[in-house]
Amino acid sequence: MGKWDKVYEDYQQRRQRILEMGGPEEVEKQRKRGKLTARERIELLLDPGTFVEVGMFVRHRSTEFGMDKRFVPAEGVVTGYGKVNGRWVVVASEDYTAMAGTFGEYHGKKFVWALEFAKEKGWPFVGINDSGGARLQEGIDTLEAYGWCFRAQILASGIVPQISLLLGPCLGGQAYHPIMTDFLIQSKKTGFMGIAGPAFVKTQTGEDITLEKLAGWEAHAVKAGQTHLVGEDDRDCIELCRRLLSYLPSNNREKPPRVETDDDPNRQIPELDDFLPDPMLRVPYDMHQIIEKVVDKGSFLEILPYFARNLIVGFARFNGYAVGIVANNPMWKAGGLDVDASDKLARFVRFCDLFNIPVVTFQDCPGFWIGSEQEWKGILRHGAKCLFAWADATVPLISIIIGKSYAGAHYAMLDKSIGADLVFAWPTAKINIVGAETAASVIFAKEIKAAPDPKEKARQLIEEYRVKFEHPYQAAERGYVDDVIMPRDTRRYICMALEVLQNKQVSRPWRKYSNITL
To answer: 3-state SS of the chain: helix, strand, coil percent to 5?
Structure first.
């Protein structure tokens, strides 16, 4: 036996024990739940052969409640770095087979290392959540570790993109980690997130509710707007993560990567000329179809597709350049902006601005929703977030006005006054302070009331107002619209605008922070 053989044998045994995670029985239980192991998830996420693990031998120091005899492989979370599509990322993947992936002091320290390393290197962070929650045996050390983790991710926010994959349970204080990342991807089958589980909810409130209804994907992707993307299972979620990363820069000092495309930037789309079903814009249509026709073929990735469906946000490419898309969808609530849509818009635009991603809007919006429900929810406060987001943004901003652009929605969906670099309108656009019906009913109220036939008089005056003001040409005459374009040419104008604006520079007075929070 060589003099180092025993040392190397000990090393291999220790390493192998960790690589076996919770052991064959626990791994088999994980598979029966329909879940991959923490290490299998990393292998799927990263390019083959690129993963470098950090902290494999980290071990807790707790001695109470028999913990001095408890071995938790890798402290229930696998951390390290590797490449996705050839670019470096940092990853932390919780291991449910090792003491249910519970979050203790050194579990938290590994998360903190990953976040701080990502921030220091300027690499995106990906967290994979699958945990039984707080490790109660460690008491105050667990409590403090949560704080370390939250602070680390907050200090990295806006510096590097942060993505969470919710592939198992994530309940209690631990749920603040994924909710504070930039994007959350949740598994339909196995992902659950909540501030408390069903048993605790029943004990404290008396409400009897299932885990699926309380904390499943519909709760967060449809109702709460906290889950950005939903996958069928582990593999689908991981593939969504890889695709999402392809649109994002590695950090806030870089531009998003450009990809090669064979889609002609000057491609005309003749069918758009007749796409709108009604010249008066009274018949709803699906804005997704317009987006899919003008972007690089197959490049649109919608974010929050199930929440506030009256507004569409997502990433796409034009001539290989990554952009953020913001669009009204007349199929839902006439494309009007409500509280939820306003929050959805503002946060997405803020993210794009932080990470140097140009934004293109497609407008057909009758205005903000009114009435007691929206007023009492704070529509003015939430709507103002849209205005702050646009006016603060320093990235290229391009607006396409397709249909209605009325009142507050005119600037909430991006116009010249709030900060657009270039605004183009289709001939079908209706740009005004309010619609013709509303304007005529106020301006000509006395004339209509005094007329022998008030209904006919109202019709005539509404039409007169519409002909004079409800079109894009007055805005173009004033320079508020840069050009009125044929729908078929929309892609060409956007591609040219992105090329012209790619080196946009904006200088602003220094300030510590914005006076409105999202």
So the answer is: 45, 20, 35
Domains of the chain: total = 3
Q: Which domain holds residue 459?
A: 436-469
pLDDT digits (tens, 9 = 90+) for 190-218: 999 999 889 889 999 999 999 999 999 99
Counting Cβ atoms within 10 Å, is residue 20 exposed (0-12), middle (13-18) or buried (19+)? middle
Nearest C-alpha neighbor of 176 from the set 121, 129, 224? 129
Q: Distance between CA atoms of 29 and 42, rounded to whole angstroms?
A: 19
Chain-wide mean pLDDT for the chain?
94
Residue recorded with tokens 């894009």 = 472
Tell whether the model's pLDDT for residue 514 goes beyond 60: no
The predicted-structure confidence for 391-434, as pLDDT tens digits, reads as follows 999 999 999 999 999 989 999 999 999 999 999 999 999 998 87
Are residues 186 and 179 in contact, defined by beta-carbon separation less than 8 angstroms?
A: no
Burial letters 171-198, b for 16+ CB under 10 A, else e = bbbbbebbbebbbbbbbbbbbbbbebbb
Q: How far apart are CA 398 and CA 421, in angstroms?
A: 6
Sort strands 422-425 and 483-484 into parallel, antiparallel or unpaired. Answer: parallel
Q: How many residues in total does the chain contain?
A: 518
Give alpha helix (H) positions in 102-163: 105-121, 140-156
For residue 318, which amino acid is it? Answer: F
- What is the pTM (predicted TM-score) of this model? 0.95
Q: Do 78 and 145 sit in the same domain of this protein?
A: yes
Alpha helices by DSSP H, listed for 308-367, are 339-354
Q: What is the pLDDT of residue 124?
A: 98
Q: Could you give the C-alpha distances from 264 to 37, 258, 293, 314, in angstroms and in order?
A: 43, 15, 12, 22
Residues 476-481, mean pLDDT to the nearest whole number = 96
Range 353-359 average pLDDT: 98
Domain final residue, candidates 245, 261, 282: 245
Residue 153 located in a structural domain: yes
pLDDT tens string 93-103? 999 999 999 99
Reading the block at residue 168, the tokens are 């198992």
Calpha distance 409→418 (Å, rounded)? 11
- The beta strands (E) that lie in 284-371 are given as 301-303, 311-318, 321-328, 359-365
- Tokens 């991981």 map to which residue? 238
| Any domain includes 254 | no
Which residues are designated catalytic?
172-173, 408-409
Mark whether 75 and 152 lie in a shared domain. Answer: yes
Query: Which residues are bridge partners to 33 per DSSP?
Result: none
